Task: inverse folding
């Protein structure tokens, strides 16, 4: 588990062999596409094929359902990443509860405490309202999340949400959660 992600990776070649010359078919009109299949084969042999993957978009408004892992050389799924709202580069595996001070119903938190550290919000944007996918589960029929992009005094940016619309208790618990970190 890399925790907040991998900041630096070093690849050391203990044995290196010369590369064979390859005939490249080229055109002046277009650049050749890079072929990474050899590198993927080598890494799969070293660390295991099941440990290599890439992310692909899935059509879903619920953030944790909008991404899936696929094989590194799998064909493109054809779905595009949504561009209307920015998403954090690091989505937490499960949203973590935070303690907040915020005005309801549509205001972002003024301060929040996450993992024992209190942060004062300097800037915020939102809410982005995400509704539950009622066709998947009956419990999501009235579920609502209000997402906010917040920046603390140190310039770190987070993606937090309130479960519920801030007024009606049937839409959620009105508790706050940390869901992602912008890189």
Result:
């Amino acid at each position: 588990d890399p925790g907040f992600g991998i900041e630096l990776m070093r690849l050391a070649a203990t044995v290196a062999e010369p590369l064979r010359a390859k005939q490249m078919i080229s055109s002046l009109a277009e650049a050749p596409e890079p072929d990474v299949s050899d590198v993927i084969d080598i890494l799969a042999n070293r660390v295991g094929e099941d440990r290599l993957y890439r992310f692909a978009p899935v059509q879903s408004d619920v953030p944790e359902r909008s991404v899936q892992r696929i094989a590194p050389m799998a064909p493109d799924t054809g779905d595009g990443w949504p561009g209307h709202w920015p998403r954090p580069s690091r989505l937490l595996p499960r949203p973590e509860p935070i303690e907040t001070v915020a005005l309801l119903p549509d205001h972002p938190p003024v301060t929040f405490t996450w993992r024992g550290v209190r942060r004062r919000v300097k800037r915020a944007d939102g809410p982005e309202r995400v509704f539950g996918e009622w066709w998947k589960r009956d419990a999501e029929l009235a579920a609502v999340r209000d997402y906010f992009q917040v920046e603390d005094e140190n310039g770190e940016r987070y993606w937090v949400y309130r479960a519920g619309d801030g007024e009606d208790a049937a839409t959620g618990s009105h508790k706050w959660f940390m869901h992602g970190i912008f890189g």
